[in-house]
Amino acid sequence: MYKLAFLINPISGGGVGKHVFHRLGEILDSFGMDRSTWIAEFTDPKRLDEQTDNLLRVSDKLIAVGGDGTIGLVLDRVRRLRPTTAIGLIPLGTGNDLGRALGVYRVYNDKGLIACLKQLLKAQSQPFDLWDVGGRATLVSYISAGLDASVLRSFDQARKQGKLRGGTLGNKLFYLKSFVSNLGYRLPKGAMARIETAEGSVELPLEGRRAFLAANINSYAGGAHPFPGGQFDDGVLEIAVFASIWKYILVTAGSRSNPAVARWMRRKLRWYRARKITLTLPIGTPVQLDGEDFTPAAGENMPLTVSFAARVHLLDLRKAFYALF
User: Fold this and answer.
1) Domains of the chain and CATH, by start
2) Looking at the whole model, is its pTM more than 0.85?
3) DSSP for 274-314?
4) Residues 265-296: tens digit of each pLDDT
5) Cα(257)–Cα(234) distance, integer angstroms
6) Alpha carbons 79 and 13: distance in angstroms, whole number
7) What is the secondary structure of 93-140 as a DSSP string?
């Protein structure tokens, strides 16, 4: 049994995952960790479920190294197999929203890999909600339909076709270009959401709206904060419906630098707290799940139900930033 396991996406961050893999030995040696007490593997897309399950069985703590998509896949297996295992994250993706919500991104970005690893090894775990999506996927951070999902779908197609260049910066520039080209997008006729709240069931017509967002964390689209005070262990999802493009831009752009913008925008948005969501969308409507294109899978599962699945344990560095050493 290993004390620690690492599952590393080698292409995350424009190949930074490979760099992390090759540095682990010397870093953990400097911490006094015997090499027989830990294991590290690159992700293998052909056997990722099996690979993750095996590392969960043979380790006390598993750290996923990659973007939100990597941690999402890991946590899907965690909730099905060993929800009591402590899970950590080293964020190397483009958005890194889960890493931001847990305080890991700030430590890694400002102080580097060594400081991040040191804090993860001594971090306390915090309860964290996971949500079932249509019986076949796990929501970790958020699910959305509309403008942002359309932008993400364009990005995903470009990535699969090998058109992206320039690492993380190139990814962000492509997102900006795609956002501008998708500015006119509106949700189609027949789009609808039914949410279960503490006060009862609410029907939300979505036709003509720009985007529907259901979030488990208060970090979205690479660092926006649409839901001030939102918690990830309260058994509810925060819901926002964006009717106009200016409201969407204010939340996604303005709340990055000034949280007061999001608090002000709460009065301008249709905002709810839901225990369960049922989405009904015409086939082909863009849907994203945790920063990954979910459109084909969503279309096969309409209406798409999102419900509470499990509470797991994630390593939390929100209080570690000013006590790094």
Assistant:
1) 4-129+313-323 (3.40.50.10330), 138-310 (2.60.200.40)
2) yes
3) ESEEEEE--TT--EEETTEE-HHHHHTTSSEEEEEEEEEEE
4) 767 777 899 999 999 999 999 999 998 899 99
5) 26
6) 26
7) SSS-HHHHHTTHHHHHHHH-HHHHHHHHHHPPEEEEEEEEETTTEEES
